[in-house]
Amino acid sequence: MSVLEQPLIRKNISLLRYNTFGVVVTAEYFATIHTSDDLYALKETGATAEHALLIIGKGSNILFTEDFHGLVLHNRIEGIRMIEKTGDEVILETGSGVEWDSFVGYCVEHRYYGTENLSLIPGTAGAAAVQNIGAYGVEAADIILSVTGIDLHTGEKKSFTNKACRFGYRHSLFKTPALRSFFITSVRFRLSLQPRLNLSYPQLVRETEHVSHPDILDVREAVMRVRRSKLPDPEQTGNAGSFFKNPLVSKEKWETLLADYPDMPWHALPGDRFKIPAAWLIEQCGWKGKQTGPCATWHRQPLVIVNLGHATGKEILDFSRAIQKSVYERFAVFLEPEVLIL
């Protein structure tokens, strides 16, 4: 059966609604995946072996710079189910296409502790595992038990333990070339049934200081208020959230920077490494709220690049490179993109 004879596959589909940057591009082939059976059906036709593959959820961490010449697989695998419940914890399995913030809302509603600090992050549960999303002192790696999916080339179903996922800062095994053809179908999370709130970030402390005994809903609402106050709504203004990762530098580099910029914010990490806020570096170079054509940095958070009109992916990429160049020339620190650039 040819690709076009496969009922799941459509040809020449606009990806405008499938990327939050709002870039106008087209996919040569496109299929919506609702179940694992859909993946096996595609594999049997040879479509997953014949074409370059791109797996997308909400398209909230992608910058398209050109049309995609291959097969885009849109993940719509839904469902949340309880696997196990004890006196102290619960294990939930969620379809990889479940909207992440809907999953967080579900957990908060049922008083399952662990996801609340990750409220309002765009994307899907599967993407949360791929990217190891994080915010306000919590990462997806802290609560993920295992990740299951299908190798689209071999058809093999495989599960990875938390350790096998090789989680790092905005990184996982699933971002490596060896796992590019691996379609995550479900993710299992281990959550606490006992109140374990993380209010270590000053912003959350300020947002909850009027509450004598904050609970899980208070934390979720505080996180949502903070995020909405700083970040643009992709439904209104095209963006992919944080465009760059916060750079990690050696102790020697940190000492050099601190000597020159004593007010520089930083966070110590294991192994004598230090995290420097990319937003601070960008703002120091005068980029906060700066606009070039239809591209700009958000006026409240310079780490976010926005599409103010009809910017092309190439224009956004050039804008991001100008920021990288400016930061490197001043600080000798390279800003690595957090978004996937295609």
List descriptors.
342 residues; globular; 5-stranded antiparallel sheet; 3 domains; Uridine Diphospho-n-acetylenolpyruvylglucosamine Reductase, domain 3; Uridine Diphospho-n-acetylenolpyruvylglucosamine Reductase, domain 2; alpha+beta; Uridine Diphospho-n-acetylenolpyruvylglucosamine Reductase, domain 1; 4-stranded mixed sheet
Describe the structure concisely for a colleague.
The chain has 342 residues and is of the alpha+beta class.
| Sheet with most strands: strand arrangement | 6-7-12-10-11
| CATH topology group of the largest domain | Uridine Diphospho-n-acetylenolpyruvylglucosamine Reductase, domain 3
- Helix and strand content put the structural class at alpha+beta
Number of helices: 9
Calculate Rg over CA atoms: 21 Å
First and last CA, distance: 29 Å
Count of folded domains: 3
SS strand fraction: 25-35%
Q: Report the principal-axis shape.
A: globular
What does this structure look like?
The chain is built from nine helices and 20 strands. It has helices at 36-45, 47-50, 100-109, 125-131, 202-208, 216-230, 251-260, 278-284, 313-331, and strands spanning 9-14, 26-33, 53-56, 62-63, 68-75, 80-85, 89-95, 134-135, 138-139, 144-151, 157-161, 182-192, 238-242, 248-250, 267-269, 273-275, 291-292, 295-298, 301-307, 340-341. The strands form six sheets. The chain has a five-stranded antiparallel β-sheet, with helices on one face. It has a four-stranded mixed β-sheet with strand order 1-2-5-3. Strand 10 and strand 11 (157-161) form a beta hairpin. The chain is globular and about 60 Å long. 38% of the residues are buried.
